[in-house]
Amino acid sequence: MGATMQFVSLASLTVLSITASGLAVPPPSQDVINLAGGPPPTLPPPPSLSASASERLQLGLYLENLEADYFNSGLANISTWGLAGIPSNIVDGLGPIAAQENIHVSTVASLLGYFNQPIPLPCKYTYPVSSTAEFLGLGSFIGSVGFGSVMDAGLNVATTDPALVAVIEPTIATEARHNTFFRILGGLLPSPSPADTFVPALFAKLWFDQFVVPGSCPNPLNTTYPYLPPLSVQDAPRPLLTTRPNGPLHFTWDASAVTKVPAYKYGAPAYIAWINQLNAPIYSAVKRSADSGKARISIPEGLTGVAYAVLVQDNTKKSPDDLVGIALSGIWPVQVT
After folding, report:
1. Which residues make Cβ contacts (< 8 Å) with residue 218, sequence separation at least 6?
2. What whole-number percentage of the chain has pLDDT above 70?
3. Residues 59, 202, 73, 65: what is their CA dihedral angle, to the nearest 10 degrees?
4. What residues pair up with 310 in beta bridges, in sequence order?
5. Which sign, positive or negative, has the C-alpha torsion 32, 40, 306, 327?
6. How far is residue 161's CA from residue 106's CA, in Å, rounded to a whole number?
7. Per-residue 3-state assignment (H helix, E strand, C coil) for the chain
8. pLDDT of 65 higher than 60
9. What is the C-alpha separation between 221 and 224, in angstroms, rounded?
């Protein structure tokens, strides 16, 4: 692994400040608004907020806090890392991205505060990057998981809190443009597939959790998301894994932790389920059982862009959301070219 990037907070871009009551969220500074290209929404808030929508917004803020910190931290470290062939105007693009993420943080925090709901505060974070190239590579994955989760949130609140759609959905295009910035600078196609991939809330949270310093969150998420052990790939010491269909990956997981997951079934066959675009999951059989702790899997044909792998013991589910209840692990993102 690369050297650890230490937690950095840039005062010029830190816009979230909770008062003692935990409810009031002052607006971003004018400098941040100018850099972002606009303020938080001035539309009136929705008339109500359901419990399920509150939970999704709390998770959304948990994810946005990390994204804002990641981009702020990149700005603080690029001068130390150097550019090594990367265009020198990267900061000109990264600054507005960081400011826009802070606008998103302020927007979600304000909504939660308006309805007297818990407001997750930023944690401390650590990222396995030690160069500008690695920062861009991991940033692309963070962006993909982040806006995949936003798409999933929009789909869910459309039925329970339709007024929230007007707040959530416009951020997807902005998040996608952020991701395009990272992809181009990382030497990847700006738009690798005709559709992006929904990332269910649980999978997004579990993947982001790996960057959170344990015990560092001032007020942990007040949600019901269960723990699942992480899925990893031996071939990926850096967060830059790009591969082609049929390319083998060596997946690993904590076998003892997997056997304690409620969905685990002793002796049942295991699979790596692949989530990609608007398609039904594709399943790759694990030759040994789920309690073996490892599997050598070839990437199926037909995957493009970022695909997500997850360990399961059922190969009949037809949608990513169906995998949440049967998953034995968190997700691992793979950039397929």
Report:
1. 121, 122, 123
2. 89
3. 0
4. 273
5. positive
6. 20
7. CCCCECCCCCCCCCCCCCCCCCCCCCCCCHHHHHHHCCCCCCCCCCCCCCHHHHHHHHHHHHHHHHHHHHHHHHHHHHHHHCCCCCCCCHHHHHHHHHHHHHHHHHHHHHHHHHCCCCCCCCCCECECCCCHHHHHHHHHHHHHHHHHHHHHHHHHHHHHCHHHHHHHCHHHHHHHHHHHHHHHHCCCCCCCCCCCCCCCHHHHHHHHHCCECCCCCCCCCCCCCCCCCCEEECCCCCCCCEECCCCEEEEEECHHHHCCCCCCCCCCCEEEEEECCCCCCEEEEECCCHHHCEEEEECCCCCCEEEEEEEECCCCCCCHHHHHCCCCCCCEEEEEC
8. yes
9. 9
Structure tokens belonging to residue 107: 């927007």
Please provide the average confidence, as pLDDT, over all residues in the chain. 86
| Cα distances (Å, whole numbers) of residue 19 to 25, 110, 220 | 7, 12, 17
Token pair 């019901």 is found at 224
Q: What is the pLDDT of residue 5?
A: 27
More confident residue, 109 or 246: 109
- pTM of the predicted model as reported, rounded to 2 decimal places: 0.88
- Asked if the model's pLDDT at residue 10 lies above 50, the reply is no
The two most distant CA atoms of the chain are separated, in Å, by: 60
**Cα angle vertex 158, ends 156, 162, to 5°?**
140
d(CA 196, CA 231): 22
Over range 246-258, report the average pLDDT. 90
Q: Are 115 and 54 in contact (CB under 8 A)?
A: yes
Q: How far apart are the first and last CA of the chain?
A: 23
Identify whether the C-beta of residue 35 lies closer than 8 Å to the C-beta of residue 96.
Answer: yes
- Residue 285, beta-bridge partner list: 271
- Exposure string of 306-327, with b = 16+ CB inside 10 Å and e = fewer, is bbbbbbbbbbebeebbbbbebb
Mean pLDDT value across residues 80-102: 87
